[in-house]
Amino acid sequence: MLKQIRWYLETALFVAVSFAVALLPDRVALAAGRCIGRLFFRLVKGRRRVAIENIAASLPFLESQPGWRGGTAEQLARETFENLGCCVVEVCKLYRGKGQGLIDSVEFRGLEHYEAALAKGKGIAFITAHCGNWELMALAFGVRHHEISVVARRQDNPHLNALIEKIRKAYGNGVIYKDGALRSMFAALKKQEIVGLLIDQAVHPDGGVLVDFLGRPAWTIRLPALIGRKSGAPMVPGFIHREGGKNIVTLYPEYQMSTLDDPELAAAEDTRALTRFIEEYVIQHPTQWYWVHKRWKNSPAPAVADGAASD
Questions:
Q1: CA 247, CA 140: separation in Å to the nearest integer?
Q2: Which of 33, 79, 224, 284 could form a disulfide with 86 if both were Cys (CB 3.0 to 4.6 A apart)?
Q3: Is residue 214 part of a domain?
Q4: Whole-prediction pTM
């Protein structure tokens, strides 16, 4: 009963906020989104702690990379929440049917890579992550270029899940839920459709490959690599980021699959290479990745030095 009440309250809050946000000019709405993000940074202590801990543990790797912008874990976590607040208000506008201007303003770079992949006639496995406003990226691409079937996890809150699904389908995209997704993904690719895959969430070791991510081993889904190999569909990485008040989608050349004969070793090599695209994104746009997720929750604990073990 308490869970049902919480779900209804969460949904009511989204509906109320979306109604208010829809009335605001885009610039004012984004300012409100940053304020919402800062408020949640203070109130949602659990996710704030996860974000700060994730960033702090990744800083040694990030600080060693060329072009690193700097910043403390707390500062970067706060800005991450601000970006998520902006994402919320943008999704609210889309839900209320006030997002066409937002979609029209998205800038696409590297469309020639998408066009070259599409010309092969085998569909496209669009590889991305929880970066920038990933929902806007899929919707804008679907409206302006080609519909996408997004592989997604059902939200725990069924009422919010229904709202999010409504937004996705209202702009022409499809949804493939992870439970039983394999057959639907192959069917879509066989029909030369585009399937969108987010590959940056923690997975159980049984379904993943242990690869280094931001300096630490993380269990990473290997399914996209296996699908790309079995279907022959080109894999095109693409990500969205905020830059100078605009949302920019950057598409990269088709990823060239591993030439290893062993399918398991090849999948591991491909998973490492695809994960590296996300690392590069985080280095360039550290506050626009989804740090609030427990990305390393199933990963092995760091080794403890012999001298420290007795402390």
A1: 10
A2: 33
A3: yes
A4: 0.92
